[in-house]
UniProtKB/TrEMBL annotation:
This is Ribosomal RNA small subunit methyltransferase A. It comes from Dyadobacter fermentans (strain ATCC 700827 / DSM 18053 / CIP 107007 / KCTC 52180 / NS114). Residues 27-198 form the Ribosomal RNA adenine methylase transferase N-terminal domain. One of its GO terms (molecular function) is 16S rRNA (adenine(1518)-N(6)/adenine(1519)-N(6))-dimethyltransferase activity. It is found in: Cytoplasm. GO terms for cellular component: cytosol. InterPro entries: KsgA/Erm (IPR001737), rRNA_Ade_diMease-like_C (IPR023165), rRNA_Ade_methylase_Trfase_N (IPR020598), rRNA_adenine_dimethylase (IPR011530), SAM-dependent_MTases_sf (IPR029063). Its main location: cytoplasm.
Amino acid sequence: MNYKKPDDSKVRAKKHLGQHFLKDLNIAQRIVDGLSGHGGYDRVLEIGPGMGVLTQFLLPKTDFSTYVIEIDTESVAYLEKHYPDLAPRIIAGDFLKFNAGEHFPGKFAVIGNFPYNISSQIFFRALEIRDRIPEIVCMLQKEVAQRIASPPGNKDYGILSVLLQAFYDIDYLVSVPPGAFDPPPKVQSGVIRLRRNGVSALECDEKLFFRVVKTAFNQRRKTLRNALKPVGEIPYHPLLNKRAEQLSVQDFVTLTLLAQNAQGSN
């Protein structure tokens, strides 16, 4: 198969959609090669394929069927014209409103060059249906990619780090310079891979866990004794003397259980 860079004249990059079209074919190949098959899926959903620079590397794969979801009608028309065999598997719509059950009876992987302006929202949506998504390989703003993959104790460690690491093992794969895109973004990019871990459910109330994590990092310079006051009374524990970035996922589960028990006893 002859792989090709997209012709920029075909689809105009739209700022409000955060479009930056990848043109580096080596990077495109490395992103697709990041899929490991972890979790036993037979379908892959590409988010925001644009003009298909990743798609063309996905389509020859025989161990899964490739689907794409694209909100830009101009890109949808381009894909239908240049990849006619893909046409029945092009979903014209928004992943943030995507009903997986309508299209996939089982598990599916997610891949894509995520729009930087909604990458966090994409991850929150994926978390909602995490048992359907055993693997994600994606490119996003390098700062966000590093944050997601960062371990506890690192200044990059934050809300997304904890929430995603609770359910996924995360690897940082490669950095990508602005020149790999057209138009080039003003920031560096990074590729990460998330593979579902063995945690089927947290040992605590999940909604409260999310609240504890978000509240802790909203005032990350404070010790948790002070930062978590909006959550309610939490019985003393040595973890409360630390700051949010110092805690592991299990530490946050422990604090959530303390808060949960305190609320239950009121």
